[in-house]
Write a structure and sequence with these properties.
It comes from Butyrivibrio fibrisolvens DSM 3071. By secondary structure, this protein is an alpha+beta fold. Helix content is 16%, strand content 31%. It has one domain: Roll (PH-domain like), CATH 2.30.29. The chain has helices at residues 73-78, 104-122, and strands at 18-23, 27-28, 31-32, 36-41, 44-49, 55-60, 64-70, 81-87, 95-101. The model is unreliable at 7-13 and 127-138 (pLDDT under 50).
């Protein structure tokens, strides 16, 4: 299991420290194809594509809502994975796919835990209406809820 890369530089302060650096592993005559590189920082996911013309796409980790991993038979033989990040409101679309990368499970776990940590640091929440209650007393069923985050359920406070 490789050690994560930790770089520290003043130019990286907005993204945080570089934790993982991966390249698409599909090779054609020893050349990485389709020339895609992934850089995962503490706060940012960067996808760099191209050979002559580069396209760099950044996504804040707090926007990643969920992560899935897929391994085909051929990928399992070569120790590779494809990670799909489901992203909320990003210019790159609703998914970012990291294809044919090594250490897929470790990167997936890092993305999941770090995206949650980034949301907590930024005090950003994803809202999903899981149970809609209609009527004037729709908060009556909220037992044990701590909306002000002081550690005490709101029903016990006056």
């Amino acid at each position: 299991m490789p050690e994560p890369i930790i770089e520290s530089s003043s130019s990286l302060t907005s993204k945080g420290n570089l934790v993982f650096k991966e390249t698409t592993r599909l090779r054609f005559f020893g050349i990485p194809w389709p020339f895609t590189h992934y850089q995962i920082y503490e706060n940012d996911l960067v996808v760099i594509k191209g050979l002559l013309n580069l396209n760099e796409d950044d996504c804040y980790l707090y926007k990643i809502a969920d992560v899935s991993i897929k391994r085909t038979l051929l990928q399992r033989i070569f120790g590779l994975s494809t990670i799909t990040c489901f992203v909320a409101s990003d210019a790159s679309g609703d998914q970012i796919v990291l294809k044919n990368i090594k250490h897929g499970s470790q990167i997936k776990d890092f993305l999941l835990s770090q995206s949650e940590a980034c949301r907590l640091r930024r005090r950003t929440v994803t809202t999903q209406n899981l149970s809609y209650h209609d009527g004037p007393h729709h908060f009556d069923d909220m037992h044990g809820v701590d909306l002000n985050h002081d550690g005490i359920p709101d029903e016990f406070q006056h």
